[in-house]
Amino acid sequence: MISVFLNGGCFDNELQFKVQAVEYKVADDFVYPELSEEAQAYVDEHGVPTGIW
Predict the structure, then answer these.
(1) Cα separation of 8 and 11, whole Å?
(2) Do 16 and 4 contact (CB within 8 A), yes or no?
(3) What residues form DSSP beta bridges with 17?
(4) Reported pTM
(5) What does residue 15 show for φ and ψ, rounded to 5 degrees?
(6) What pLDDT is recorded for position 48?
(7) What is the dihedral of CA 22, 23, 27, 29, to 10 degrees?
(8) pLDDT value at position 19?
């Protein structure tokens, strides 16, 4: 189970959501989710978006 909390000036350790983790067997150090064709085309063209949100 994965639980996500926010804590800060506007939040007081507030639970945002819970999800059930799923185990994946992988051949390397990375796990990649299956992407829709549209999402895969974006990643192929622009790379994986990273940064501060």
Answers:
(1) 5
(2) yes
(3) 4
(4) 0.37
(5) -65, 125
(6) 79
(7) 80
(8) 87
Which residues are CB-contacts of 1 (< 8 A; sequence separation ≥ 6)? Answer: 18, 19, 20, 21
**How many angstroms separate the CA atoms of 22 and 7, rounded?**
26
Alpha-carbon gap, residue 40 to 47, rounded angstroms: 9
Which parts of the chain have pLDDT scores under 50?
none
Looking at residue 41, what is its pLDDT? 93
Query: Alpha-carbon distance 44 to 50, whole Å?
Result: 14
Helix (H) or strand (E) holding 40: helix 37-46
Report the pLDDT value the prediction gives residue 5, as an integer from 0 to 100: 85
How many residues does this entry show for the chain? 53
